[in-house]
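Q: Given only this backbone (408 positions), what sequence would you predict?
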């Protein structure tokens, strides 16, 4: 690596991920690029994960961010982050463009990720193999902040609420599930999810067809379960032979307005349904899928990481700070703020490595004699050894930093 690498703030070029559920317009529109694009663009990554590291761009030269960190971890990350997480950026910042529902999935805890990664390495499963589950030894808690209206299925609903929905659907093949929830509450969920996901192949289409037909009737009637029923019909139309459609009926349906956020810890089953958002997470690509996808599904792996505890609507209440809002979440790997610095500007207190992402408008970043102007959809990386950073402009800026250490 050149000795002329940037020693202060520098522009960060993201890595686009092309997944079938993405949009041909949303990310390109944010960045001011021509659209529709040739392929769906689902995610724009800003970070140093080995499967899609961003590039630092300065004076016409480029450096892979993970390579820069490996060459000077303490300068880039700071001694605190290196001591807690090793010589790697502990968070990953993304723009998401969700045009079709994502897969039904959950993420492992730290201990599960470590053990799963070690097991697949020992068995010689290539890291880039489609059937690989643990691509790194990290957990993946995540915080999503909506840019447009976002809808998601996230965490198990309280058993009594799920029973009421299933009773409204009146699907005879699922009466056993109503009875199990009545008798055992959320303790019935792991076995119930397993039974649904292993539903006999020959009977799957008829089950989903019945569920979709009943859901259409419930949606047309209106009432308390109208929106959940509408989404069941959408999922059933996309995946007419996938019992994950029925599992989706067990989850909370959440709608976020722009600026609202949700947080998902390990083990919570979820599927993002639609919308455009900023997401920050631990720098992991570990996804255990249970359905609603053409990618490999790992039922046993999902049941291993699944947390059946009912999750209250996992909204994060933003806290006002100077120039914007913070989104508090119990995650060591990351913290997120949304800022509008204005013409008067903001002085940012250094917190180790940072990524500043502009979404709408324009922002200027000044640090140690270096000045960068970021347009919508552009980002900057701030090394930990940067002494002072000033942010100004009319753009909306998402600031991702390392989270606070938890204390016993």
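A: Predicted residues:
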């Amino acid at each position: 690596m050149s000795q002329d690498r940037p020693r202060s703030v520098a522009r960060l070029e993201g890595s686009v991920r092309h997944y079938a559920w993405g949009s041909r317009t949303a990310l390109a529109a944010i960045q001011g690029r021509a659209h529709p694009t040739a392929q769906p663009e689902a995610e724009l990554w800003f970070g140093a994960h080995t499967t899609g590291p961003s590039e630092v761009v300065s004076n016409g030269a480029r450096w892979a961010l993970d390579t820069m960190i490996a060459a000077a971890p303490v300068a880039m990350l700071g001694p605190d982050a290196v001591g807690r997480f090793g010589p790697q950026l502990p968070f990953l910042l993304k723009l998401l463009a969700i045009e079709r529902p994502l897969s039904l999935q959950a993420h492992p805890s730290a201990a599960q990720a470590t053990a799963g990664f070690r097991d697949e390495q020992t068995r010689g499963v290539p890291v880039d193999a489609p059937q690989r589950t643990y691509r790194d030894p990290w957990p993946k808690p995540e915080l999503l902040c909506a840019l447009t209206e976002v809808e998601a299925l996230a965490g198990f609903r309280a058993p009594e609420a799920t029973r009421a929905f299933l009773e409204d659907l009146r699907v005879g093949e699922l009466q056993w599930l109503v009875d199990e929830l009545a008798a055992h509450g959320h303790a019935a969920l792991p076995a119930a999810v397993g039974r649904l996901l292993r539903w006999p192949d020959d009977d799957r289409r008829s089950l989903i067809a019945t569920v979709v037909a009943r859901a259409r009737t419930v949606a047309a009637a209106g009432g308390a379960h109208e929106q959940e029923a509408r989404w069941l019909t959408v999922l059933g139309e996309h995946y007419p032979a996938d019992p994950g459609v029925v599992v989706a009926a067990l989850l909370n349906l959440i709608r976020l307005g722009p600026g609202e956020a949700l947080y998902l810890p390990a083990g919570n089953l979820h599927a993002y349904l639609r919308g455009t958002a900023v997401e920050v997470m631990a720098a992991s690509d570990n996804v255990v899928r249970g359905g609603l996808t053409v990618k490999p599904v790992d039922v046993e792996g999902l049941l291993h990481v699944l947390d059946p505890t009912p999750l209250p609507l996992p909204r994060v209440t933003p806290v006002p700070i100077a120039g914007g809002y913070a989104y508090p979440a119990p995650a060591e790997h990351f913290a997120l703020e949304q800022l509008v610095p204005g013409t008067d500007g903001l002085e940012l207190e250094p917190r180790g490595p940072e990524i500043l992402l502009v979404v709408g408008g324009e922002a200027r970043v000044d640090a140690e004699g270096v000045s960068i102007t970021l347009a919508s959809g552009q980002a900057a990386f701030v090394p930990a050894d940067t002494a002072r950073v000033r942010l100004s402009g009319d753009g909306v800026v998402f600031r991702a930093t390392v989270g606070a250490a938890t204390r016993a």
